[in-house]
# Entry
Amino acid sequence: MENFFDFQLTVELLGYVQPMLIAGAVLGLVAGLLGPLVVTRKMAFAVHGTSELAFTGGAAALLIGIGVGYGALAGSVIAALLLGLLSRRDSDRDSVIGAILAFGLGLGVLFLALYKGRAANKFGLLTGQVVSVGSTDLWLLIGSSVAVLAVLAVIYRPLHFASVDAAVAVARGVPVRTLSVVFAVLVGVATALSVQLVGALLVLSLMITPAAAASRVTASPLRATLLAVVFAEVSVLGGMLLSLAPGMPVSAFVTAVSFFIYLVCRLMSGKRERVQ
Amino acid sequence: MTVWGKTAQVTDRSTRAAVALRGARLSYGDRVLWDGLDLDVAPGEFVAVLGPNGSGKTSLIRVLLGLQPLSAGTVHVAGGNRRIGYIPQQRAIDVSLTLRGRDLVGFGLDGHGWGVGWRHRRERRAAVDAALESVGAMRYADAPIGLLSGGEQQRLRVAQALVGDPEVLLCDEPLLSLDLAHQRVVSDLIDARRRAADTAVLFVTHEINPILPLVDRVLYLVDGRFRIGAPAEVMTSRTLTELYRTNVEVVRVRDQIHVVGAQHVCEDEPHHVADEG
# Structure
């Protein structure tokens, strides 16, 4: 156990995992920027539902032998559109997500049962590190991330307005419903990308935990977003580095780091509330 | 054929109505909310819109905001949609919401604009500060908005509506669930604005007393019928008995008006522009 976090070994392995570190850094940026909006819009369960559908898409892709990344992307974009279109009212959003999530997960299990390839690939879809990130995957990931961030940059202000103050946003002519479907798709794409790294079950650790932690320590939307990006980067990159020497799944360390940050922020906010 | 170079109309703000409805009709299927509604609201005029729930008060606001087309007739609002200030009723805001009063007010300025909002941020900050100052909200402008009292939140709502320098203020039950002192503060702020900047005010309410001294005219809607006039003309036993088609007694106690007899005159149910349609 004394060699669990072997520094020498970590340095030696760094060269091999460079593409993965780049992928992680890009994902951290995307998740950190989207996270505060996801938290504000109370979409944690929607993100979870979308990631399960990314799993289904990835499983289908494994079965028919195309890139898992493309399958995950297709699955979560379809999920995001379904959720956006079927749950027009907040009141039935949870139940719609529950229904779609369960069906999608069932399909995914079926696809995996039919798949005759390596068992590690199956497990990886749920818990991360499907395949080590190759250069095609890396370019798909960077391209998709740039697209997500570009769209976000265009819609950011009205989307933020609609997320925190829908009644007045509607009155000011903001297309609230269209924006919420567009945002669901952005979250879907980001989720699909994250699934390949941390797995369908642990996407929340990237998309929700850093933003939830940030929102505990500041009321400024800008500062919360910057903090969420920092927290997400520290979680992803820190988690990856820590996982190298022990050779354990990345997702275990990413979730541990992000949860630790969350706990610290909660303790700090508890102190702040008592002072007021 | 398209006609180019249409003659520019010179509009004089002091003579032209800020809000003009002509033969306006709003109906959903067979149900007529109101019909033949002619209403001119002059700049600086304060019009209270009264009536029981379901009489189309909020729908009128939706029409003026351009969210609801008229079934017949025309509507004109000075300055277009961007020069309307809108104040909704106070609603509970999540304690953990990552938002400060300053951000809420900023949305009133340019929250509808595309982009991230990096450009002109210095000018924006100055405008937001001025609006916060004008409602006396500077002290808590940077606090988490969910931790503020209902009265403080409604002051911010007024600043949010005023920061865009509106020609028309549409207020949809802005005093609901506020205590008397805060009702006074918020309605005085609205009154000060219309006197200082000649802003027309349409104020939807189920309770006229908190704003009675400010009101120039009343639009009273009941089951498709309506009356427009000074409070002294409309708020009488005779007029309201006609409108409600049942015996209604209007009692004046000191400076207050009490309507007795119409059981659904004073319902306290929240409703909202965004919840409909």
In short: Residues 62 and 117 of chain A are 8 Å apart (CA to CA).
